[in-house]
């Protein structure tokens, strides 16, 4: 099936992500436990309704503490990895979301926008995020910054849309958002085919922003409706 938000069908997505992530899933989960608890939880209240956009195997949404959890992805394997309290939205993100207007406090997305086919699809996605967020709600976006990865960015078969922190900032502002945080360097590029460092070093890294400027290859952009 052609989805519209990606040139790949569902079985393609299943195979790509199974090959890429499943052997490292336990380690990824441990890393995301630290990322959510030590960094991202400060942006999410316990009473919030949250959408994990392009949720993958649910590493963020499974660990974040909030009142209402939604996860959106086209990979049909997603529900296998999601916690029981997460509602799975199996759909194209560039089409109307299966969510009501102003029903969310937070939209979170990590390493997802680069998989969209073009900026038109991204613009439609941001418009849906705007519609579904409550006034004062936030969208939190993390992803590879092509400014620091001009060659390595294309090492993944399903990367299509190159972005920097500034291009995404402009896109968010065009969609009506006010950008509150725009970091060009945050986390290192990828955990795929990378060393598995001790989990204690993840917490240390988050406490040391000078390391972000040295090792960070992913942007962090946060915007408010």
Describe the structure in your own words.
With 225 residues, this protein is an alpha/beta fold. The chain has a single domain, classed as Rossmann fold, CATH 3.40.50.150. It is 31% helix and 20% strand. The chain is built from seven helices and seven strands. It has a seven-stranded mixed beta sheet with strand order 3-2-1-4-5-7-6. Strand 2, helix 3 and strand 3 form a beta-alpha-beta unit. The longest helix has 14 residues. The protein is globular and about 40 Å long. The chain starts with 9 loop residues before the first helix and ends with a strand. The model has no long low-confidence stretch (mean pLDDT 89).
Low-confidence stretches: none
Q: Characterize the overall form.
A: globular
Tally the structural domains.
1
SSE succession? HHEEHEEHEHEHHE
**Any idea what the radius of gyration is?**
16 Å
Distance between the termini: 34 Å
| Residues in helices, as a percent range | 25-40%
Q: How are the strands of the biggest sheet laid out side by side?
A: 3-2-1-4-5-7-6
What is the architecture at the second tier of CATH? 3-Layer(aba) Sandwich
Query: How many β strands by DSSP?
Result: 7
Largest sheet: 7 strands, mixed
CATH fold descriptor: Rossmann fold
Structural features:
225 residues, alpha/beta, Rossmann fold, seven-stranded mixed beta sheet, 7 strands, 31% helix, globular
Summary of the model, kept short:
The protein is α/β, with parallel strands linked by helices. Helix content is 31%, strand content 20%.
């Amino acid at each position: 099936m052609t989805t519209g938000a990606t040139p790949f069908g569902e079985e393609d997505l299943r195979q790509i992500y199974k090959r890429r992530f499943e052997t490292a899933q336990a380690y990824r989960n441990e890393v995301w436990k630290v990322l959510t608890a030590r960094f991202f939880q400060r942006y999410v209240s316990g009473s919030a309704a949250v959408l994990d956009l392009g949720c993958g195997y649910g590493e963020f949404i499974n660990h974040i503490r909030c009142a209402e959890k939604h996860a959106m992805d086209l990979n049909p394997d997603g529900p296998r990895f999601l916690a029981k309290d997460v509602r799975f939205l199996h759909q194209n993100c560039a089409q109307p979301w299966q969510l009501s207007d102003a029903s969310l406090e937070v939209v979170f997305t990590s390493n997802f926008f680069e998989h969209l086919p073009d900026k038109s699809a991204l613009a439609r996605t941001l418009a849906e995020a705007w519609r579904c967020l409550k006034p004062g709600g936030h969208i939190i976006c993390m992803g590879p910054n092509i400014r620091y990865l001009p060659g390595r960015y294309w090492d993944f078969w399903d990367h299509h849309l190159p972005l920097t922190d500034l291009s995404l900032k402009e896109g968010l502002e065009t969609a009506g958002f006010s950008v509150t945080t725009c970091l060009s360097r945050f986390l290192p590029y990828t955990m795929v085919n990378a060393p598995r460092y001790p989990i204690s070093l993840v917490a240390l890294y988050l406490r040391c922003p000078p390391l972000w400027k040295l090792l960070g290859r992913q942007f962090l952009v946060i915007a408010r409706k």
